[in-house]
Amino acid sequence: MERDIRSIISQMTLEEKAGMCSGKDFWHLKGVERLGIPEVMVSDGPHGLRKQNEKADHLGANESIKAVCFPTACATACSFDRDLLKELGEALGDECQAEDVSVILGPAVNIKRSPLCGRNFEYFSEDPYLAAQMAAAHIQGVQSKNVGTSIKHFAANNQEYRRLSCSSEIDERTLREIYLAAFEAPIKEGKPDTVMCSYNKINGTFASENHWLLTEVLRDEWGFGGYVMSDWGAVNDRIEGLKAGLDLEMPASGGHTDAEIVAAVKAGTLDESVLDTAVERILRIIFKFADRRMPGNFDKERHNQLAAKIAEESMVLLKNDGILPLPKEGKKIAFIGKFAAKPRFQGGGSSHINSCKITSALDAVKQTPTITSSVTYAQGYDVAEDQTDPNLLAEAVQTASEADIAVIFAGLPDAFESEGYDRTHMKMPESQNELIREILKVQKNTVVVLHNGSPVEMPWADDVNAILESYLCGQAVGAAQVRLLFGLANPCGKLAETIPLKLQDNPSYLNFPGDGQKVEYKEGVFVGYRYYDTKAMDVRFPFGHGLSYTTFQYSDMQLSCDQLADDDTLTVSLKVKNTGNMAGKEIVQLYVADQTKAANRPEKELKNFVKVYLEPGQEKAVTMTLDKRSFAWYNTQIHDWYAASGDYQILAAASSRDIRLSKTVRLSTDTKLPFHIHRNTTVAELLADPRTAPVIRSMMEDLASDMIGGGDNSSEAASEAITPEMTLKMLENSPLRSFKSFSGLSENELTALIEKLQAAAGSDN
Predict the structure, then answer these.
(1) HSE (side-chain half, CA atoms, 13 Å) at 32
(2) Residues 6+ apart with CB under 8 A from 100
(3) Is residue 370 a contact partner of residue 418, using CB atoms and an 8 Å limit?
(4) Residues 324 and 283 placed together within one structural domain of the fold
């Protein structure tokens, strides 16, 4: 049934229309019974359904329904698996239908600018392409069940400190290439029903009343057709927000902002057509859900099994000297650390799920009949405070010393990272670091299993035999850990972020989190591996890194062409072979390295990836495509994406630091950048542009000859002091006005030269 929404709006009173633009309560939108407009519910996500039926609150202090806690985004991004994220989305969509939830809030795609952001566990990656691909698949999965998503937090919300008022100060290129790019592809391809605007200001204007962001970019450029809702409490000025494109304020405002809207329309300061447009957007999504209800299937056990599968695909084996997989029989293995018995598997705040079931590693190893090795346990530490308990430490050291292998389950307690505040350092609790140090003194065979929502410093990394990064992997975390540790499954996750050696190495270190009024993004586009790799800086583990119990060989890389126009698509193919003796999955990453030097760009950037399953000895061909955006950077002269003519390296890699194959393609563009030539334009700039290079080159040769001098009058000392190389470099860095001094050009001749050069470059845009 297709509703005539505009006819419905025409029958609404001004007060009813204003009322549609704010929540009824914490989680429900208002309905209008006489017009058949139903009340609908939205609920927190994004890695589980946090539905509250009674005492509602934003940060999760009051209990929500029993639900399935899937792995958080910091983990699922490491799967590099679009199909897996879609399957996760489908499960969430089923749950929402069963629980009569019209929109689940998520996914969250904000970039991990700093490892200190308290909400990093909810975010996918430091890389906008990976974040965008994971988000698009998640959205498509949820919305295939006719349940809406709300991609968040739009935009540049990369810290918790003063998040409701601080201004993110970002230049246009950085904003487009890094922070908006994570939203752009999911919105264009995934088509979420709603977008949630962030709390913060962007370059001085609140996101909730930023017309450029919410209308010019989101709707006019990207074609978004749903409604924009506020983050809970993000509205600063309701009328300005409505004008900017903020349709729905959440949660309920007690009627105050509804009255402001009515008063503004009556006073003529708000055109009623703006209100009508907002109501139309909201009603379209409400009726989309209400009129196309699907049977829900909240099968908690099946979804728990899916959570375990996703966790298994997402954990990252960071280090292994051969100690893993653990022997399934005949050995004595010590599980050390409280997280072995009571794992940390999700973050704090609005995404906190009331899990229907929790499986620890200690539970899982007891429930796995194929594992007959003896497993002992010692708690080792407490998480209530970061203080060593001598008795717990002594017990753990004794238990480890009596075993053949010690597996230490460590990481960050809840108090170390949560929505609402940022971390102040990148360290693990010192009590846990001490535990690891003391066990290493008595046990040479030691494995560390980490539970954390963002990177930690690992002062013991070189001394332990293996490290398994679990991140926050949901309620079935223990089942996945045991399968991976004992080789019942093969690790296949890869890092979605760089793990630096120390916090001070991070590119945002000097500019995070700002002074509370502003935070300046001075590192520009050099975020994460874009910075570390360009500087060739040592890191603990690079972006895209992850080990397996088998090995993979890349070969026979082919490009569909070696020359292309900037609107062509390039197809890249290569072969991947499992050269080990265990079935496994490899994530092939495709990077592009701009060799043109037309702009200051990172050494390379991720532009595609594929995950491939291979039996031992099996070889498969994989293909990936690259389009104009794969080569382009955002040019602020033309306010558009631009790929300069020249060479680009195509790199097939196992991580950002493990390049296996490379080929070069030459790109040609017909796009001409505007070139305004003036007295202070340098010779180097003119030589770099093929339109003006021929004009200036002939003059430069004559001028260089005059400056160097010559003939019999040149002294040997002068020749040594003023070399041709030095003269040419001086000329390249000279502005046109210097021609008056060095070649005797008159002011009129200089003006004529500038006009000639401008004519060669084309009209000044």
Answers:
(1) 20
(2) 41, 296
(3) no
(4) no
Q: What is the pTM of this model?
A: 0.94
Q: Are residues 257 and 375 in the same domain?
A: no
Residues 184 and 49 in one domain: yes
How many independent structural domains does the chain possess?
A: 4
Q: Report pLDDT for 52.
A: 83
AA identity, residue 130: L
Burial (Cβ within 10 Å: 0-12, 13-18, ≥19) of residue 378: buried
In a domain, 220, yes or no: yes
Domain annotation covers residue 505: no
Q: Provide the CATH number for the domain around residue 396.
A: 3.40.50.1700
Write out pLDDT tens, residues 311-353. Answer: 999 999 999 999 999 999 999 999 999 999 999 999 888 888 9
User: Which tokens in the block code for residue 684?
Assistant: 């180097």
Q: State the helix-helix crossing angle for 300-314 and 477-485, rounded to 10 degrees.
A: 40
Burial of 80 (C-beta count, 10 Å sphere; 0-12/13-18/19+): buried
Domain boundary among 243, 265, 290: 290
Number of helices (H) and strands (E) in the chain: give both, helices first: 25, 28
Distance CA 49, CA 104 (A): 8
**With 0-12 CB in 10 A as exposed, 13-18 as middle and 19+ as buried, what is 630?**
buried
Of 563, 588, 724, 571, nearest to 647 (Cα)? Answer: 563
Task: List helix spans (H) across 709-746.
Answer: 716-721, 724-732, 739-742
One domain for residues 282 and 305: no
User: Residues 136, 199: one domain?
Assistant: yes
Judge whether 518 lies within some domain.
no
Cα–chain center distance at 760: 43
Cβ contact 296:340 at 8 Å: no
- Region class of 156: left (phi > 0), else alpha (psi between -120 and 50), else beta: left
- 396 is in which domain, residue-wise? 300-496
At 593-614, the pLDDT tens digits run 999 999 999 999 999 999 999 9
Residues 281 and 307 in one domain: no
Looking at residue 715, what is its pLDDT?
A: 58
Q: Which two tokens stand for residue 111?
A: 């970039």
Task: Return the biggest CA–CA distance within the chain.
Answer: 103
pLDDT, tens digit (0-9, with 9 covering 90-100), for 554-584: 999 999 999 999 889 999 999 999 999 999 9
Query: Are 178 and 247 found together in one domain?
Result: yes
Q: Residue 178 has what pLDDT?
A: 98
- Contact partners, residue 350, CB within 8 Å, separation at least 6: 44, 50, 58, 59, 60, 105, 232, 419
Q: Is residue 569 part of a domain?
A: yes
> 267 — alpha (psi -120 to 50), left (phi > 0) or beta?
alpha
- Give the pLDDT mean for 388-411: 98
Catalytic residue set: 231
647 and 629 belong to one structural domain: yes
Q: What is the CATH number of the domain that holds 93?
A: 3.20.20.300
CATH number for 653: 2.60.40.10
